[in-house]
Amino acid sequence: MRILEYLQKTKGVSRRDMLEMINEKALLVNGNYVENINFELKKNDIIEVNLPSGEVYEEEVTSFPSFKPIIVAFNKPKGCVVSKADKHNKTIYTYLPKSWKKDFYYIGRLDKYSRGLLLLTNEPSLVDYYESPKSKILKIYEVKINKPFKTNHLLKCKKGFDVQDSQDSSKKDFLSFYDVKPFKDKFGKHYLRVLLTEGKNRHIRRMLEALDYKVFDLKRVKFGKYELGDIKPGKYQIHKIKNRK
Length: 245
Description:
Elements: H1 3-11, H2 15-23, E1 27-29, E2 32-33, E3 46-50, E4 56-60, E5 70-76, H3 100-103, E6 105-107, E7 115-121, H4 124-131, E8 139-145, H5 151-159, E9 161-164, E10 172-175, E11 179-184, E12 190-196, H6 203-210, E13 215-223, E14 226-227, E15 236-240
Parallel strand pairs: 7-13
Antiparallel strand pairs: 1-2, 1-3, 3-4, 5-7, 5-15, 6-7, 8-12, 8-13, 9-10, 11-12, 13-14
């Protein structure tokens, strides 16, 4: 079993915590520093963690946790954040079983004001697979905007363009849509069906705002083979894992 998976399942250690321990040379197995989160543990290995307090935590691997990997399709409501803890906002785990905060990991994110399909899993390797740009997992969004989408913006969005970084105003990100199709609902309101295979922070909102559109609503309706369907806000469906694709 991978050391990341073992520590996640037995100690609730996050991927970020794991990377910090590796960078700080605080994690050892059998007296040797661990340099990769994919390090394979064997039974009777000795894990050693040098704590910031100066103490040393040591544990022998006597068994590996067993579980059935699943994917959870959750309909994230507006107003909650995709995080395990937030002092100022309600998190997605408000709507989920308490034990899931330790045992389940979200795949990607939706910002506080976006809604729709969010995937979670108890299998860490699936997080890596679904979040990797190399996997080219298709995600589909329905976006309500304030006015008709200009024809010349269709090609511009597919080709991509530089957009100011959301965290650092001195930097820019090159963003694009895999595909985009305008449509109207039965009330004549303007929408876009946006397809992405790779998403950066506030990707869709930043591109549309740069083109002078206001986003009134943003909902993810599909992530890979999983669809939002008729799952109600704050509710979820559990899917057994047969294969990734």
